[in-house]
Amino acid sequence: MASSVSSLLLVVSTLLLALFALGTHADVKRYQFDIVMSNVSRLCHEKVMVTVNGSYPGPTIYAREGDRVIVNVTNHVKHNMTIHWHGLKQRRNGWADGPAYVTQCPIGSGGSYVYDFNVTGQRGTLWWHAHIAWMRATVHGAIVILPAPGVPYPFPKPDVEAEIVLGEWWHADVETVETQGSMLGMAPNTSDAHTINGKPGPLFPFCAPGQKHTYALQVQSGKTYLLRIINAAVNDELFFSIAGHTMTVVEIDATYTKPFAASTVQLSPGQTMNVLVSADQSPGRYFMVAKPFNDVPIPADNKTATAILQYAGVPTSVVPALPQLMPATNSTGFVAAFHDKLRSLNSPRYPADVPLAVDRHLLYTIGLNIDPCETCLNRSRLAASLNNITFVMPRTALLQAHYYGQKGVFAADFPDRPPARFNYTGVPLTAGLGTSLGTRLSKIAYNATVELVLQDTNLLSVESHPFHLHGYNFFVVGRGVGNFDPAKDPAKYNLVDPPERNTVGVPAGGWTAIRFRADNPGVWFLHCHLEVHTSWGLKMAFLVENGSGSDESVLPPPKDLPEC
């Protein structure tokens, strides 16, 4: 009898283990992205533009931590195309990262490429976008990574979740706008409107009955909503607020934060943020507002986009309430105070593994420059640089050249410091603004710890710059105004619970210090996420060497990798 019971228990245990294994087995999520031309109308203007699957914004990618994601991208338009999965680390798999001529050659007209990657050790809100020229203005969408099965959020579970994608709209073809600016050597025209989920809202004039220019989120009184906010704007930093409602920030760039309350949040292009909002006000209609942050005298789209938080049962004839106390467009102090509140959760399950010892100290100065151009207006063109180097994109993908040992594509000699020291944020410098041109990478040893200080300068003008590092998260250990002081400023670093991000804003006339461990081999792009500056050359790349053995080396390229 005892033997029979033992046998039965063994069978039951085996079945339970099998069921558990099935329940925790990672899924494969498959998507088809068709790059097509679509007719889209906004604000009395209809145009034909590039989209994914005919939608603007594009489809949301849903996955869980641990899943494998396979996206087949087929290009049906005349333009070259790549897709970047912004914030996904792509460990050892730069082939799936997406920036054109950095990790892959573009997908040509009529071609296809399969982006095949694992979602490892990440959960939260990220996003995808085109990564060639200015195509991301219309080719972008959300990535929602849910926790692994059975793993709860480290904050109260929301009743409903929704994506809020902030963007920009041009009446003209965006590629034409960028090309015209480049030919003249000047800044391209600013956008004609900001958008929330592709729509500018009712504060702009309506043109025809039935055209839906406003996004509305219907809510039920008493319920809590998780809003996954993405700044997909091309060139503008943005504030976001909801009339009459307080938000609780719980995540940035797919990393959990210590929760804090905010009536207004601020995101730079490329950044994401999750906030909790309770529908706890009198039933009504409340505006959600996106407006620009711009604290320097440089032209920007100053228009406000709106959407509506719509309580169920309230007639749409009710006029929505506007936020009462949003910060001014140039509110530098508000932005600094907001970012000072951002802290990593740093819990036992989600620790902040900040590198305490540093192997490589880097200082990169950010410059806006003027280079000669015989065919441009005034025989000069606006340029941008890191350490006075304007990056020149190659015609062969850097990762391919590195993997196959191809010579003559790049030099691995990007300097650790600027060529000359000066009062970086003193009076504006208007002479000697030329740069050196080059395709120069910084070589980093595998597993080295890196501290990078990004220093804004007053070459032409100071300006805020959001920088995105591909292939990594990093810790924002310090930031300040003026010139970085290596003797004094590190003593003020937060090395306990600094915010962990993939995109960080460098304040106008100031500096930001980040740290990361270079444990992901490959070629990884670092660039300003203001597209106008990226196109002027404000970019470079790290070449992280292989470590020991295959588990610390770049994976072989896929067979369908596009050719240049």
TrEMBL record:
GO terms for cellular component: apoplast. The keyword Nuclease does not apply. CDD domains: CuRO_1_LCC_plant, CuRO_2_LCC_plant, CuRO_3_LCC_plant. It comes from the Eukaryota. The keyword Translocase does not apply. One of its GO terms (molecular function) is copper ion binding. GO terms for biological process: lignin catabolic process. Residues 37-147, 164-313, 414-547 form the Plastocyanin-like domain. Binds 4 Cu cations per monomer. Its cofactor is Cu cation. It catalyses: 4 hydroquinone + O2 = 4 benzosemiquinone + 2 H2O. Residues 1-26 form the signal peptide. It is found in: Secreted, Extracellular space, Apoplast. Keywords: Apoplast, Copper, Lignin degradation, Metal-binding, Oxidoreductase, Repeat, Secreted, Signal. Its EC number is 1.10.3.2. It holds the Pfam family Cu-oxidase. Lignin degradation and detoxification of lignin-derived products. Belongs to the multicopper oxidase family. This is Laccase. It comes from Oryza punctata (Red rice). The lineage of its organism: Eukaryota, Viridiplantae, Streptophyta, Embryophyta, Tracheophyta.
